Amino acid sequence: MAVKEKNPAPYRPRTLARTIKGFAGNYGGRWSKVPNPPQWYSTSVQVCGIYPFVAGSARPTDGAPLGRDILSGAAVCMDHESLFRASVISSPSLFLYGINGIGKSSTAQTILLGQAARGITPGLFNPIKRGEHTALTEALGGKVYEYGPGKAGRFNLLSDGPLGKAAREIGGDVGRQLRELASSKSIELVQLLTRTHRGQPLDDIEDTVLECLVQDARERNRRPSTPHLLEAFQSPSERTLGMLGYATADAFHRRFIRLGETIRSMLSGEMGRLIGGEGDVDFDPGNPGGWCFDTASIPASNTRLLSAAMLASWSSGMDIIDAHWELAIHEQKKAEVALENGELYEPKVRWRGYSTFMDEFWYPLRACEGIVDRVDKLGRTNRSEGVAEMKATHSPKDQVSLRNPEDREKAAGLTERCGVIAMMALTGKDLDTLNEIRSMTSEEINLVKGFNAAPSWHKPKTKTQRGGKPTPPPGAGKVLFKVEGRVGIPVQMVQTDAQSSRHVTDTRYRNQS
User: What is the per-residue pLDDT across 271-282, written as a single tens digit (0 to 9) for each?
Assistant: First the structure.
């Protein structure tokens, strides 16, 4: 009788060779080919629901999705509004610096879109490049205002504007205060544009004359418009003459003949057509898509006209924000009163907060000395108004190159008080200038210096990307975000196809290619 073996040959223990693909041999589990597993790009907070064995990142993950950390590859999500809510910065403001063609506008749009996804209304100002922000605004359902040669838009410097519309709807003491605010802002805008058109500062007495003329024009006309300013100068009121100390209109005209020439010149030609509107800026405070003031039809070489258009659009945009806030508060109070009476009232207007972007911020400062304070005041929003603000320019030398020493000092102070400084490709001198304003380490300076360094002298093998887009230049989308007292975060920005398809600024080059 045969004896049965306890361990038949196929099942006897054997030593298996261990490899990187498993144990070699029968029943070792070795794979001849290891498939590439699917990959996802997300934050650790999201991915942990799929794969719980993840490590947290030291980079911020609250805010607009920006891209990857250049040094560590970690995801970075943040913006100046989210950093302000997290008490990292004291002001929800960001200043963006960078040379031409490396993606300043794309970076700004990425931040604005991330904020819009949180319900924050975008307000954009498009001063130079045609269609740079209009397509994005239209895609969001926002309102586009176009001003310049061949455009229907005309500014009315004497209009109550959005503040007047809010005043009429609210009424009472609040409405009266809004009308007074509209009158005050109208006076400031007329004074500022007169300075810009003349190209020189005004005397104090000339500022006073303009204030009186604006008041006369607004009181004499049911629907005042900018041309009424000249009528008020030609026929000054008794109040104006008495305030200035002149017995007759002839004496007034002899004293302020130069100011009269400036007003006549400002109301003629292209400038006159730009500011010769008769209506108000129409706005919809309930539109979450926001708005865009487009002045790109004005040639960049026409410094005075473009500066005037930028200043007037900034003023109108800030008035829209103020009017929206007042209307939202008014509607909320109506809802509270209705609730006390046991009724339900749905507010027609709600406040979501705003995020504004002012491109080419320093352009108007070159038009005239001594207007840094006025320009900053006109374009300033702050945390008490629930507005995050973002400004962009090519170089910090735009600040230090102003002719007036006091202007240079004040301009540098604007950057000092900014919550976040975002630096794209810059020259060594630019970085030295910024380092004097906002202290940086030598590693941070060298990192930004190398952003736009080409890897070689040769063209890349792939000359175009998907969709026929040219390969971006060196440094495109690379940004160092710097907050006072903290190490800067270098980010390679990520732009989605939906965004890039609506932001094309090199159409001629693409067609040529």
Answer: 999 999 888 888
